[in-house]
Amino acid sequence: MHTPIALLLELGVILTALSVLGAVARRFALSPVPLYLVAGLVLGDGGLTPVPAAREFVDTGASIGVVLLLLVLGLDFAVPEFTASLRRHRSSAAVDLLLNAAPGAVAGWLLGLDTSGILALAGATYVSSSGIVARLLADLRRLGNRETPAVLSVLVVEDFAMAAYLPLLAVITSGGTWWQALLAVLAATGAVVAAIAASGRWGHHVGRVLSHPDKEQVLLRVLGITLIVAALAETIHVSAAVGAFLIGLALTGTAAERARAVLSPLRDLFAAVFFLALGLSVDPGDLMPMLPAAAALAVVGAATKLAADWYAAGRDGAGRRGRLRAGTALVARGEFSVVIIGLAGPAQDRLGALVTTYVMLLAVCGPVLARFAPTRATAPLPATVAGPASGPHDRRPQ
After folding, report:
1. 51-54: long-range contacts at Cβ-Cβ below 8 A with a sequence spacing of 24 or more?
2. CB environment 10-37: b (16+ within 10 A), e (fewer)
3. Local confidence pLDDT in tens for the 398 residues of the chain
């Protein structure tokens, strides 16, 4: 089998560069996510040194990366506690939607966009990046924090909301009628409810199927089933990341610990590729013209996300520092906003450039804000034991 030399060379250079950037970030106790995103800008089509041979691999690896991020995140939580958190945070989800979709809708109206443009911009300012948030919680060792269930509840509700929102946006941008839009939303919502019900009813069988004393078998089984479920989730208009998260929740105890041990290195590799791909998808030349408007919108978006998640963390009894950590953790926007632009952007050039700049600003600045949010008064739990599925929480307000 012939392997293209250019592919090997470009991948080698990419991975080496990511290693150096990761080491620099760790040296200053920062998350490497912003540096990976900037590296993507440099290596993209409009950057200094494009990597055309490796582009297809990076794009495919990015899809696997976000699945692995949410799968491993789900391994740290148990179904009963997480479902209880979801029920408790219904009002938090409503506050999150109202505060974070409104700035986009208002900005779209001020810019003179049509209905589809306003709807698209509202969605882009509403939804946080599942991939970036999942990596931040692990990097900053906050999985055991009191505010983390609130963060995850809001994040997963946003992903579920996208299941109804994206079909609606697709119908409106294509010029469909109101009843076609209604049917699309009802079909997507029904699929989500069915998926959640199936997970709750038969999820406990997943652990039995995927458990095995051999590490290779654990890796192949867990990754294989997760990718299948992620594909099925996308088919019914649910995020692949949510499908992966549900598989992670279904694994508990020893099965979760073994899966986490074999999957964590693979997650780190493909997560780095995911953040690189997010940067690669942006042409730096598109950023500058819309920078003032995007920067203003980003400041508002960071403030509204902080306010919404301050409220959500407060419902779990978190103190002031915990509420600040929750708010800053969800500031970053990412993959869903890129999907939204893919649907609505081609027909509206200004919208695409604005959202692209907005996403890159918050994808880079969000992790930095999260890193410098107030830390806990007590030492954080080790990453390998953090979370309700694998160790006790410190329930004191922080």
Report:
1. 51/10, 51/13, 51/14, 51/280, 53/4, 53/6, 53/7, 53/9, 53/10, 54/7, 54/10, 54/11, 54/14
2. bbeebeebbeebbeebeeeebbbbbbbb
3. 566 888 899 999 999 999 999 899 888 777 888 888 888 888 877 667 888 888 889 989 988 988 898 888 888 766 666 677 778 888 999 999 999 999 999 999 998 888 888 999 999 999 998 888 988 888 888 888 889 988 988 988 887 788 778 778 878 887 777 777 777 777 767 766 666 666 666 666 666 777 778 889 989 999 999 999 888 877 766 667 777 887 887 787 788 888 889 998 999 999 899 888 888 877 787 778 888 999 999 999 999 999 999 999 998 888 899 999 999 999 998 877 877 877 775 566 678 788 888 988 998 899 989 988 877 544 443 443 333 334 434 444 56
Residue 327 CA to its chain's centroid (Å) = 15
Question: Helix, strand, coil: what percent of the chain each, to 5?
Answer: 75, 0, 25
Q: How many whole angstroms separate alpha carbon 19 and alpha carbon 47?
A: 20
d(CA 1, CA 8): 14
Output the CA torsion sign for 6, 12, 18, 20: negative
pTM: 0.75
CA distance linking residue 107 with residue 251, whole number of Å = 43
Q: How far apart are CA 146 and CA 319, in angstroms?
A: 9
CB 218 within 8 A of CB 212: yes
Relative orientation angle of helices 320-329 and 349-371, to the nearest 10 degrees: 140
Longest Cα–Cα distance of the chain, Å, equals 60
Say if residues 323 and 344 touch (Cβ distance below 8 Å): no
**Which of 327, 325, 339, 326 has its CA nearest to residue 301?**
327
Of the candidates 143, 151, 370, 155, the one whose C-alpha atom is nearest the C-alpha of residue 260 is 143
User: What does the radius of gyration of the chain's CA atoms come to, in whole angstroms?
Assistant: 20
Q: What amino acid is encoded at 169 in this protein?
A: L
214: exposed, middle or buried (Cβ count in 10 Å: 0-12, 13-18, 19+): exposed
Residue with tokens 């974070």: 100
C-alpha to C-alpha distance for 293 and 260, rounded to whole angstroms: 42
Rounded Cα distance, 78 and 386, in Å: 12
